[in-house]
Structure formats: C-alpha cells, structure tokens
C-alpha cells in the first residue's frame, strides 16, 4: 500500500488537533489551511483513510450532527511525535 507524504500527514494531524475536523472539511476547495492547497482531494482522502486504516486516527460518529469527526489515537500521537522528532523522515520510514 502506498504511503502518504510526511508533510501531508503533519497537516492532517494538525488540522485534526485544532478543530476535531471532518473529512469533508479537509477536502473542501476553500479550506482555511492554505498549506493543504498543494494536495488534491484524492491525496487528502487517501491519507485520511490510510491513517484510519492503520489505527492512527479514530472516527467519532456524531449522531447529533450526522457528521464523522476524527481524533488522533494513542498510536497516532506516537507516530506524530516520531515524525516531529525526525525519527521518521520519509514515507518509506513509516511503519506498515
């Protein structure tokens, strides 16, 4: 399975930490995160689903708003710390 880029993962983790964001909000054309403008919707969706599939983010269903929000799992916090501490420098260094 192809692994997302490190800068994209950092941006997604940052967005989730700041706003408890939905996938839709990440992929809107007019996102407030100008750093996400460099990525296609496919890139964003792939990275989000890769993070979810590998247990780095968890989906929270909100029946009140009918939206699915994400939060970072304990494994995701470890991954993010490893990335920020430069223990993981490229996509090839990401765990399977």
From TrEMBL:
Pfam families assigned to the protein according to its UniProt record, in alphabetical order: DUF3116
Protein name: DUF3116 domain-containing protein
Species name: Listeria grayi FSL F6-1183
